[in-house]
What does this fold into?
Amino acid sequence: MTSDGQATSDGEPSAPPAVAELGLDDAADLEAALLGGRPRYTRIEVAERAGTDVERAAQMWRALGFADVSDDAVVFTDRDVEALKTVQRLHELGLVDDDTQVTMTRAMGQSLSRVAEWQVGATTQALANDTGLGSGDPLDTVNELVPMMEGLLGYVWRRHLAATAGRLLAGSADEVAHPMAVGFADLVGFTTLTRHVDEDELSLVVERFERIAADVVAKQGGRVIKTVGDEVMFAADRPGDAAEIGLRLVEEVDATDELPGLRVGIGCGKVLARLGDLYGEPVNLAARLTSVARPSSVLVDRELAEALESDPRFRLRRVPPRPVRGYTLLHAARLRRADDAAGAQPTAD
It folds into this structure.
């Protein structure tokens, strides 16, 4: 049997494909190198050592994105014990309640899963191309790279922590919701595209789009909230910044031959920021506006349109109200640059 339950032709254990690509003979060596030690505990033992109940520990494990394991499976290390102890300590200090524990764990698991996928893919490719990483021994390379990446992740986290704290301190600590503009940018025809290109081409499309989005949003003082394949959600504290982000995203994507067109919807108002995501009416409006926007266009809600009316950089053209899911009539305006002759006056389309 293989580690994922597949039997080999001669009945002997074989390494998973990823391990074979790395040139390692034993999956346990790789696992120990990545986890900082070999598995020693079952899920019952790890819960007992951390001072929590088994079901709570299993709930955290599932929230991280991992499948349940049997009671007698020895898959946990001392680091798992320490992590559970940390979560317990945060709860005892009153910093997080039970629901927040699970939600926080799920958010970290989903975010870091993507990072891990990229890192393993990049390392495997580098080793396959014989780039000279480490001493030439794949296991030595893993032992060298993991602490480096761990330190880099810590740096990025601290930077985002400082930026988030700065935004909080700049406002009122008593506010639950904060006024801001929220937008979605969605690639046109992405579903159709997936049927006509292979996985490598599709990966390049997504990577190119995410790179453009990250650059444009950061340059204009906004921040990317999340990306989901063909869609990016962004936010900005100032209406003008959000408008500039929307227009520049469309312009950048239109100038790129590798990408289909883009449609953008932006809403404005008070939103609730919770565990890295945003909630509220502006978020819902932005999503609906994106769904009805024409290719290579930006639609904004009525509140953002009013905020931009006196901004000389932009022109607005009202579009006829239309019914969308959740709204009897959705009032919106098409956003253009001031030097766009087609948007000279804020009249109805």
